[in-house]
Amino acid sequence: MPIKRFGARYGTKPKKKFANIEKLQHQWHQCPSCRKQSVKRLALGIWQCRSCQSTFAGKAYVPYEK
Prior knowledge:
Layout: H1 12-26, E1 29-30, E2 37-43, E3 46-49, E4 55-57
Antiparallel strand pairs: 1-2, 2-3, 3-4
């Protein structure tokens, strides 16, 4: 679990919220142009499709609201 790096600090609720956000931002997302599950996050709000090479701006942790 990635939140173990915080040890006994910060409490359980903030660490669980952080783990959920981190899980969302690191998973593959659907491309808005080619509709394949091949979008990864490059930087804060910058997303790139590994299939069609389109780069677009989106939200910070997910490319778009579902």
